[in-house]
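Researcher: Structure for this, please.
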Amino acid sequence: MYAHEEKCSLCGTTFLRRIYDAEIPSDKADVTKPLCPECRAKERERKEREREEREKEIRRKKAEEKRREFVKRLKAWRVVPIEDIRPEDDNVLYILGNGFDLMHGIESSYYDFRDCLGKHSSLRSALETYITVEDVWADFENALAHFDIEAMSSEDIVDMWLDIFDVYNEDSGAAEYYMAVEAAAQPIQTVATELPKRFRKWVNTLASNTADRPLKNMFTGGKVLDFNYTEFVEELYGVPKENVCYIHGCRVKQKGKPPEPLILGHLLEASDEGFEPKTRQKSRISRFRRAFVQTVRENVIDWISGYDEYLTKDTAKIIAAHEEFFAGLGKTDKVITVGHSFSETDRDYYSKVKSSLDDPSNARWYFGCYGLDDLLNLENLLEILEIDKSQVTVFCTDAVSVTPLQSDAKTAVKEVKEKPLCRSNDGKWTVLKKGNDLMIVDSATETVDYSATMPSGLKRAVFCANDSCLLTVMFGLDPGVLLFRKNEGHWALAGEFACNHQHLLVSRLCRVLVTDDDITFVYNNRIRKYSLLDGSLIYNKQKIGARNAHYVGKDITETFSR
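Model: Predicted structure, token format:
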């Protein structure tokens, strides 16, 4: 990769562009019209708006078709208004799904969770890139069973990681081997380790946004089987805590006890199909490497399988942990579900409810349906549970609406002057960052000597080599280091420290040392040295125990630490 200056074809702004060698045309001329990051962002936004409008129209038409089919299929059921669901005694079980929270103005859909992650989240990227279902967030828990195992463990992918980590080098050891295996399994590892933390953090932010109680006639007593992680059934309808079973955990921490784990995942064996051997595609690797690659591939699949277990929901184990609650349902003769989709991941719980009733044949079942998908899932559920249609009443929840609370709070926005990224040792130069714009300013005259729009991720800068060089450090998806030098008294881009096959700034970076002429990057088992004249690579060699060796130069590691 190398960096060079260009002028935006729309606004004329000077900006820095980073290009991989493979992207450079043979005539070394960029055939596309260069756009600065701001203009590229505007162009992306325009195209994204157009795409969203097209998708919105497609969804609208599909929703209309589903609504017509929903109304048509409802004619075969006993349907009553939601206001007429009024139990006369306490022999009732309420089963609540996420639709219960949604109908009270709580932004608790998995799409809301996606938006909370942001567009540049590594967790979101792993989910949307490596899960094979078309819409990850529509049925999120089921989607977790559909990771693209082949995309992480194919022979070519494994061979690539072995190359990147120099495993084929005769000096490499077990550390490089397992780093390659871990890198291949990184997408599912990211999900397995990051999802529980980010999901709980998001759940803890959920809040009700209405004073309305649309189900006030429905809650008259009884017990609640709550699939939500929130305590809103207690807060909004006064249901005693001891009557509620939070089957997948509750966000509220009980005094003197650790927080409950929030259970999220797919059913046991749901992901098995992804691990089945695929028809082998033609591979580019040589036959001399293939046997070794196949062995490593098996290790990668073992790692993936291990992380998949973290994304699995063992319903039998969960039910056993709440056996006391189910044992207390014997006298129940009315079961009312609200906001539940009756998806396959939760059918074991319905089977347990039915088997816990003293007289299942005498029970009345009331199912709230939001639309066609709920009704179709309900039909499948009743067939599996062998519940006679005569025992069932359906009520529609798609028309339930609440009035959001009005907030008078006003947010005061203060303009904060960003601190300089760094100053030269003699105080003559100051480096400023405003958005993605880098400015090298003459401190005495406050005039801008150099200005350019940088690639995203610019975080730090440091002067070195007696203030004749400036290094700017970028993190993010494409971390790297740019070199600036004074040329005839003015600052100019000198180049970028190139690093084939992997990034310069990685977790294995241990030390960075600089002299007047060069800069050295020390990793666990590798040393890279670059010229401070033009950024060219001087030295690149693997060395076991490199981080513990002695080096000449000033230690500036802190500048390059994330």
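Researcher: Any notable elements?
Model: The first strand starts at residue 2 and ends at 7. DSSP finds 15 helices and 23 strands in the chain.
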